[in-house]
Amino acid sequence: MLRETPDNLLALVKKVFAEVDEDFPFVRYIKPTPGAEETLKAIKKAGGRVGVVTHDLASAACQHFRALGWEELVDAVVGLDVCSLRKPAPDPILKACALLGVSPKGGVVLGDTAMDLQAGRAAGCRATLGVLTGLGKHEELRPLADAVFTGSEGVELCIKKWARLESNQGPHAYQACALTT
């Protein structure tokens, strides 16, 4: 009978992920969600900071961002190697906000699953925005979101509107989830 502890299992998962990331030529296959880069640029242009929370390892996500040329667009990455708790727990969002140096009350969560939005709500974020670019369906996201967008265009308009309304209140943190497929 196996007597694995949660810590031992997590270490094993991290090891397997690291080996796959090291050996697999993901750069040839990575495809960003349409509009993701434009959304990140809009957030940065509006004075926001971007933290990405992923169920992958942060180190793997950083490799993906480097391959896409997005290193300057992402300020913090929280994965299983940074925070062992997963969404919908608020902990990964809280960790991202801490890394960005902002209160969750100033943060906006952009997510494509109910778990993303639940985590943002549980963390006490200012807003949760659903985007229909991933696995989530409108009927799943709507009860948890302040707004649901079919693509990144609506998110960009929302960001620009907030930037105009709050230009004198300092930078805000934005958390983006599931940017790559």
Structure description:
With 181 residues, this protein is an alpha/beta fold. The chain has a single domain (6-176), classed as HAD superfamily/HAD-like (Rossmann fold). Helix content is 43%, strand content 14%. It has seven helices and six strands, in the order H-H-E-H-E-H-E-H-E-H-E-H-E. The chain has helices at residues 6-23, 36-45, 58-68, 91-100, 114-123, 138-141, 152-165, and strands at 49-53, 76-78, 107-111, 127-131, 147-149, 173-176. The chain has a six-stranded parallel sheet with strand order 2-1-6-3-4-5, with helices on both faces. Helix 2 runs parallel beside helix 7. The longest helix is centred in the N-terminal third of the chain and has 18 residues, at 6-23.
Topology, element by element:
Elements: H1 6-23, H2 36-45, E1 49-53, H3 58-68, E2 76-78, H4 91-100, E3 107-111, H5 114-123, E4 127-131, H6 138-141, E5 147-149, H7 152-165, E6 173-176
